[in-house]
Amino acid sequence: MSQEIRNLEPKDLWNKFADLNAVPRPSKKEDRVIKFIKDFGNSLGLETFEDEIRNVIVRKPATSGMENRKAIVLQGHLDMVHQKNNDTVFDFDNQGIDMYVDGDWVRARGTTLGADNGLGVAMIMAILESKEIKHPAIEALFTVDEETGMTGALNLKGGVLRGDILLNMDTEEDDEIDIGCAGGIDVTANRSYNEEETPEGSVGYGITVKGLIGGHSGMDIHKGLGNANKIMNRLLFDGFENFGLQIAEISGGSLRNAIPRESVAKVIVAGMYDEAFVFDMQEIIGDIKTEFKTMEPNLAIEIEKTDVPSKVMDLGVQEGLLRSIYAAHNGVYRMSADMEDLVETSNNIARVIVKDGEISIQNLTRTSVETSKIDLANSLRSAYELFGCEVTFGGSYPGWTPNVKSEILDVLTSIYEKQNGKKAKVVACHAGLECGILGTNYPDMDMISFGPTIHGAHSPDERASIKSSQKFYKFVLEILENIPVKK
């Protein structure tokens, strides 16, 4: 890792981020980062423990003169999204993130950076370690598996935390203070199918969709970015309708909370259609690239001859698959009627796998309105059940209802305006923050969410602003000094 990261200001923040990013921390494989945080807390002589689901809590007493202030919970999540470019060789399970400085940005070489939520965690670590920062009594809550299930927040029991105020450091625009967020639900469609022997005289082709921007399936869903699974389905549907294309395999997308950037399919067509099929595909590819030229300038769609696969999908099931994915909603479903420019409900068709007689279609539906979440989930369920899928709902978590009369909100908005000469934007976001979930067991805790500017989260283009991290650091320190007095 380049020493230039450790030399950035504020050094205590960036050094803690560098330490953290040296530890592999994929969702659901957090043993090493849990040990890292526990060792850190214990090395400082602070009360440090795990709860039953493996969240880590570290308690630090108030500094002198701050004992009469309300106790606070500083909260961030330990796991990070693992995405890499197709041509990047990287082992997320065993390698630390390779970072570098690019102007005002810190980036990673070909992978996600982990600033989501690594910078928030690093900020908390810097506060725990400091002997100079003034603060009230602190509970640092490091949750697990936020990115793929909100597991840590969902399973944190009431009574574990003692704080009155929770500061969640997991948003990505430094001029925004979040007071609400979307909930979500996983919609998964599965079914088996019969494989058939590939007809004599067939020609094999590989189709690849790549070069899409991707991004966060909540925060970026309104941007009109390309979805590799939808684009691939469009190509396959046309090839099937016009040339009797048959599918051998599909592998598209990766994580539910990432807009899919790549999809690869293995297909066959009858030899008699060979030239016509390629000509037709090139025309459609040209049309799609023209449609996306503004939003997706690096979109690449390749079609090339391959070995002929020995087996292909049953045609009846294949037709149902292609029509159902065409019918299934992807993107913004409804905008909020109550908050300007806020996406209320959306869906991300995140993962499509067809292989060895099994189909899996994985979606993440998000909403700030519980009834709308079920409405869209049932719409998706209907599309998939029409071709014989078993559809399951899982991983449901609630949204966070805004509290515009929050005491800590008044503190943050006042400090922000004093430091920056303008008002902060008080918003709700379409991402899934842990505040709504934590509030179910801690309904009286005053909660707020904010963070430094991070762009491209959940994609290899993820980058964190150096200037914004300095602004974030200064903001947090003054917030700690101005926590309200106990009543």
Describe this protein's structure.
It is built from 13 helices and 25 strands. With 487 residues, the chain is of the alpha+beta class. It folds into 2 domains: 3-182 and 399-481, Aminopeptidase, CATH 3.40.630.10; 185-397, 2-Layer Sandwich (Alpha-Beta Plaits), CATH 3.30.70. The strands form 6 sheets. Strands 9, 11, 13, 15, 16, 18, 19, 20 and 21 form a 9-stranded antiparallel β-sheet that branches. Strands 1-2-6-3-7-23 form a 6-stranded mixed β-sheet. A hairpin with a 2-residue loop joins β19 (343-355) and β20 (358-367). α7 packs antiparallel against α8 (274-291). The radius of gyration is 24 Å and the shape is elongated.
Entry summary:
With 487 residues, the protein is α+β, with helices and mostly antiparallel strands. It has helices at 3-6, 11-21, 31-43, 115-129, 146-149, 151-154, 228-243, 274-291, 315-327, 370-385, 407-420, 435-441, 466-481; strands at residues 47-50, 56-60, 72-77, 99-102, 105-108, 138-143, 165-168, 176-181, 183-192, 195-197, 202-210, 215-216, 246-252, 258-259, 263-270, 300-306, 311-313, 331-335, 343-355, 358-367, 390-397, 425-429, 446-449, 454-455, 463-465.
Features:
single chain, 487 residues, alpha+beta, Aminopeptidase, Alpha-Beta Plaits, 2 domains, 9-stranded antiparallel beta sheet, 6-stranded mixed beta sheet, 31% helix, 29% strand, elongated
Instruction: State the share of residues found in helices, binned by percent.
Output: 25-40%
Largest sheet entry = 9 strands, antiparallel
User: Which stretches are poorly predicted, pLDDT < 50 over at least 5 residues?
Assistant: none
* CATH architecture classification name of the largest domain: 3-Layer(aba) Sandwich
Gyration radius, rounded: 24 Å
- Name the CATH class of the largest domain: Alpha Beta
**Average pLDDT number:** 96
Q: What is the assigned CATH homologous superfamily of the largest domain?
A: Zn peptidases
The rough form would be described as elongated
Class based on secondary structure composition and strand pairing: alpha+beta
Q: How many domains would you count in the coordinates?
A: 2
**DSSP strand (E) fraction?**
25-35%
Number of extended strands = 25
Number of helices: 13
Output the CATH topology of the largest domain. Aminopeptidase
What is the first-to-last residue Cα distance? Answer: 48 Å
